[in-house]
Amino acid sequence: MPVTCTGGGRVLRAALSGEVDHHGARAIMEELSRQIDLELPRELTLDLAGVTFMDSSGIAVLLRAYRQVGELGGSLTVVHVPDQAARVLRAAGVDRLIKFA
Amino acid sequence: MKPINEAAVSFLSRSANEGFARTAAACFAAQLDPTLEEVNDIKTAVSEAVTNCIVHAYPDRLGRVSMRLRLFEDNSLEIQVKDWGVGIDDVDQARQPMFTTGSAERSGMGFTIMESFMDAVKVRSRPGKGTVVTLRRKLSRRLGAAV
User: CB A91 to CB B117 under 8 A?
Assistant: First the structure.
C-alpha cells in the first residue's frame, strides 16, 4: 500500500511509500482523503521516509492534505523527507506553507 | 555543437510510462558518472515533462511521446520530450507557477520544477500540432565517466 495509516483520538500518522508521481498520486490522494474524513484529525503527520521518488504530483498530494486538515482546524506536519523530495518541495516553496520536522 | 552520443525512445502516453521515461533518462546519463543529486534532478525534470504530455497534450486519448537524449563534449546532457498533442496556446502563461489547466491532482508547478532543476528549459508549441520541451543540464566532470 502506498499509504499506511495509524493513530486514533484525532491524531493521524500516514506513512507514504514508493514513487509519488502522477501515476501513483491519485490513489495516494484518495486513500489519504478517506482516512482524514474517517479520523477527522487535529494533528496529521505525513511520514515520507518510504518515498523513493516525488515530483510535482507530490506537491498536490501535500497541499490537498494541508487544506483538508486545515478545514478541520487541524495541523499538518511532514517528517522524514528524503533529499530528492525535499528539493522538489523547496523549489515549489511548499516549505514556506507546511511545517517540516 | 555535435553530440558525442545519442539515444531515443518512443512510448504511449500512459501514466505507467512516467517511471520508464525517467529511468531511461537516468540510465543514459549514467555514462557521465553523475552524482546522485544530478541523477535525481534529471529524473525529476523528465518526470515533469513527460507527465505534461500525458495529462495535457493528450487529455482524452492515448498518443505518442518521444524522448531524445543527447550528450555533448562539454559534459552537458540534452533531453528533448516531444508530443503531437493539442499544443499550448500561451507558453508564457503555462510556465507561470501554479498555473494549470489540469484537475485538482495537478499543482501547476511542473515547469517551475523543470526550471529549478535544469540549466535551460526551452518550450516550442503549436496549438493542434504538438509541443517540444528541451531540457539542458551540464553535469560535473568526474573520473568515472565512460565517454
Answer: yes
The backbone torsions φ and ψ at residue B57, rounded to the nearest 5 degrees and listed phi first, read -70, -40
Closest Cα partner for B78 from B139, B9, B14, B145? Answer: B139
C-alpha cell read off for A31: 486513500
Set of chain A residues whose Cβ sits within 8 Å of the Cβ of B13: none
Q: What is the CATH number of the domain that holds A41?
A: 3.30.750.24
Provide the grid cell at B66: 518521444
pLDDT tens digits, residue range B76-106?
A: 999 999 999 999 988 988 888 877 776 667 7
- Do residue A92 and residue B48 have CB atoms under 8 angstroms apart? no
The residue range of the domain holding A94 is 3-100
| Chain A residue at shortest CA distance from B16 | A23
Fold of B3-138: Heat Shock Protein 90 (3.30.565)
Give me the interface pTM, i.e. the ipTM: 0.91
- Counted residue by residue, chain B has a size of 147
H-helix or E-strand containing A44? strand A43-54
Q: How many domains does chain A have?
A: 1
> Mutation test of the interface with chain B: which of A19, A52, A56, A88, choosing the one with the most B Cβ atoms within 10 A?
A56
Q: Note whether A50 and A13 are within 8 A (CB).
A: no
Strands annotated E in B19-129: 64-72, 76-83, 120-126
Q: Which residues of B are catalytic?
A: 48, 52, 106
Name the least confident of A5-9, B25-29, B62-66: A5-9
